[in-house]
Write a structure and sequence with these properties.
With 231 residues, the protein is mainly alpha-helical. It is built from ten helices and four strands; from the N terminus they run H-E-E-H-H-H-H-E-H-H-E-H-H-H. The strands form two sheets. Strands 1-2 form a two-stranded antiparallel ribbon. Helix 2 packs across helix 3 (106-115).
Length: 231
């Protein structure tokens, strides 16, 4: 025999279902608008920066014969992995060199474990230092945005060994698409600690809105021009 619902129960169930559907619609509406904006801006920007990407890509190839574009597995929305694209700013055997540096230099190993970066990274090429300072190396991520793996604004995409640094806040990171820019970029990037970076990502994930994204994009321009926190 099936379970019979009273009229009051039916009304309560209907109200709960309607409320859940309304909350989902309210959440999905701005998300859809954000996605449309991502596609429009990223697609337009890619057309304009394509000549620059081609020139820089050729220069990278000429310096050592290695690949111009570097792809690395990163974690994105809902914990899904994707290949994040960057113009290569390091020597072609950067992963091998990193292991050698960490094994031979205790101070470098401690810094890497704390920030996932090296202040004076010997793997970065002269050209690579320039494209990092100007953030040109990150422009291929416009393709990641068009593919729906990233957004214009959000936390920077992380690698597997950074998940532990987020701890309980990893769920906040996974709630949004990683971004080409975000609060961390406009608040100092590498000049902040990793703990501060996590808190900025959590703040964005919990308070994100359309006007906030717009302000972050506006603040990104002077941050890039001044190379604030770029390494």
């Amino acid at each position: 025999m099936g379970l019979r619902l009273t009229n009051n129960s039916r009304h309560a169930e209907t109200a709960a279902y309607s409320s859940t559907r309304l909350e989902r619609a309210e959440h999905e509406a701005p998300a859809s608008a954000k996605r449309i904006l991502d596609i429009a801006i990223a697609g337009t920007a890619l057309i304009f920066v394509l000549p620059l990407l081609l020139v820089v890509g050729i220069l990278i190839r000429l310096q050592d014969g290695g690949r111009a574009v570097y792809a690395q597995k990163r974690y994105g929305r809902n914990g899904r992995t994707f290949m994040c694209y960057k113009l290569r700013s390091m020597v072609s055997n950067a992963d091998q060199r990193l292991q050698e540096i960490l094994e031979q230099d205790p101070e470098a190993r401690a810094e890497w474990e704390q920030t996932q970066k090296l202040t004076h990274d010997p793997r970065i090429t002269p050209l690579g230092r320039f494209i990092r300072k100007t953030s040109i190396d990150e422009l291929p991520q416009l393709v990641n945005i068009l593919r729906g793996e990233m957004s214009l604004v959000g936390p920077r995409p992380i690698v597997e060994n950074e998940i532990a640094k987020y701890g309980e806040f990893y769920r906040d990171y996974c709630a949004v698409r990683p971004g080409l820019t975000g609060l961390w970029q406009v608040e100092g990037r590498s000049d902040t600690s990793y703990e501060e970076r996590v808190q900025l990502d959590v703040k964005y994930a919990r308070t994100r809105n359309f006007s906030g994204d717009f302000m972050i994009m506006l603040r990104t321009v002077p941050a890039v021009l001044m190379s604030r926190g770029a390494r």
